[in-house]
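Quick one: co-fold with magnesium ion.
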Amino acid sequence: MQNPFRPTAGATPPIVVSREGLLREFGYGLTIRSGAPGLLTIFTGARGVGKTVMLGAAEDLAQEQGWLVISETATPGFMARIGEAMRRALAELGDGPIGRRITGVTLAGFGVTTQLPPEEQVSWRDAGEQLLRLLDDHRTGLTITVDEVHAADRSEIAALAANVQHFIRDGLPIALLFAGLPAAVSDLLNEGVATFLRRADRIDLHSASIEETADSYVRLFAEGGHHLSPELARAAAEGTGGYPFLIQLVGYSLWQEAEAGNGDLDDAAVARAIAAARRRNERTVIEAALSTATARDMDFLIAMAQDDAASEVGDIGRRMSARPSLVGKYRARLIDAGLIEPAGYGRVEFAIPGLADYLRAYISR
Ligand SMILES: Nc1ncnc2c1ncn2[C@@H]1O[C@H](COP(=O)(O)OP(=O)(O)O)[C@@H](O)[C@H]1O
Ligand SMILES: [Mg+2]
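Sure, here it is.
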């Protein structure tokens, strides 16, 4: 058996740990087909926590139910790309055999990079309405997923929300799922660009349970013919902190250890796998997240790294010798960048596992 772990952004893991039941409302909504709360869902969470994976799981579920899926990322022009995909689906399905269940048609949009002029918006809505009526006749519907909404152009999000709201009001079978970083999504909802989205089910993704992570390791290694004792699986799982990207990285490295060693895995192999996984997490997630940080942003983060848990913003200001207004500005910037999160009144904490350790090592270098 090949290494089953998938330590790559968006890749489906061999076992989706600790996400049981999160798609229940959405699945139920698919049977209602229009206006059910679960049909409007937003996944939020830190980088690497599994938002894209959840969108993928929802897409699979929708396709199993015979729904059409349009899967997009909120880079500029996504509204036009969704419109194009709808028109294409309409052209393909419009002349197709009637009564056939429409399964497994995933449409990636093509590269239209402009925003929609007003006349296009009308035809966007027309195309959507026609497609949805056609799907409705077949007792199915359309699921649109938009990933990375934190980066979205506000006017495109507003246009999408307005159109979808209109479809829902007409009782048409539409589902809309978003994923994005928590603070940016909160801003998006609070700014009033798309008030209607506040009604969405918001599912905040957190770390997986250590126990379920350990169980998943025991199962996967057994399937591959490698013996991994429950104690070692537990140690490996603890090394991940339940952070999904690390679950894949540690599993991946440990599998390589199992392939390399001819005997059983031992404590040393687990320790090596955890160390290798953390290094890779630093290189990929952490360094990518820090790549846009300025020198002052780094000062803020380093000031935070002196605390063992959440930091008081006041303390950070003193350590940086910066005025409160300036500290507030950096705080907001870093929250937007997904590096830190509010942790109760006047406090912040790191949003990415391993970031605190990384910064402490950085200070001592
Ligand atoms: N529930 C989970 N259990 C195990 N691994 C997961 C889970 N969710 C995501 N992963 C893995 O974590 C990594 C990051 O997932 P991804 O969906 O890209 O995160 P995000 O979109 O939040 O940045 C991927 O390697 C993926 O396979
Ligand atoms: Mg993602």
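If it helps, The chain has 14 helices and nine strands.
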